[in-house]
Amino acid sequence: NKIDVDPAPENVERMKKELSKRYIVVPTSAEAELALRRASAAGLIDYVPGDSEFKILKTLNERQRNALRYIEEKVLERWGSTGVQEVINKAVFDAGHFIAVFPVENEAKLTDHEGRVLPDVFLLSEGSTAKDLAYAVHTELGEKFIAAIDARTKRKLSGDYTLKHRDVIKIVTSR
């Protein structure tokens, strides 16, 4: 953490050299990520967690401009991101062995019953099945599960189909 404060580059290199055989070393600035997320939530900037840049949307006061300039120069330009989203991704998908699966009601439009595009994502353990997803969404869907449909290929899938990371799945049930 605190990659915006010197001697961060030297510390990161030392940690990578000494620890990388046993640990994943990811340079981070949690404070910069928090500031960017708060500015984004306030509508001041357009920022996607993990991105290497942001876009200013509204007029900023001098303090806000200086803070964002500092983050841009000391963190984003130097390191490529705040590192926080990378840590989350590595913890969940690499070390945690989870996959992200998107259940949809309309496999053609990739929407739920309200017309929202890919509104939900479920983190499931690697090796989870289509029927496991149905139960994760709602017990009743699991109990009434008939099949699933892969939204990309339009293939019908059995309950024991092993889900893959980023699958988009429609669950078919009996009434």
Concise overview:
This protein is an alpha+beta fold and 175 residues long. Helix content is 38%, strand content 17%. The protein is flat.
Write the layout of secondary structure elements.
Layout: H1 8-19, H2 30-41, E1 45-46, E2 55-56, H3 62-79, H4 84-95, E3 98-104, E4 122-125, H5 130-137, H6 139-143, E5 145-150, E6 156-157, E7 167-173
Parallel strand pairs: 3-7
Antiparallel strand pairs: 1-2, 3-4, 5-6, 5-7
What descriptors fit this protein?
single chain, 175 residues, alpha+beta, Ubiquitin-like (UB roll), five-stranded mixed β-sheet, two-stranded antiparallel ribbon, 6 helices, 7 strands, flat
Describe this protein's structure.
The protein is an alpha+beta fold and about 180 residues long. It folds into 2 domains: about 10-90, no CATH class; about 95-175, Beta-grasp domain (Ubiquitin-like (UB roll), Roll), CATH 3.10.20. The protein is about 40% helix and about 15% strand. The chain contains 6 helices and 7 strands, in the order ααββααββααβββ. The strands form 2 sheets. A 5-stranded mixed sheet has the order 4-3-7-5-6. Strands 1-2 form a two-stranded antiparallel sheet. Strand 1 (about 45) and strand 2 (about 55) form a beta hairpin. The longest helix has 18 residues, at about 60-80.
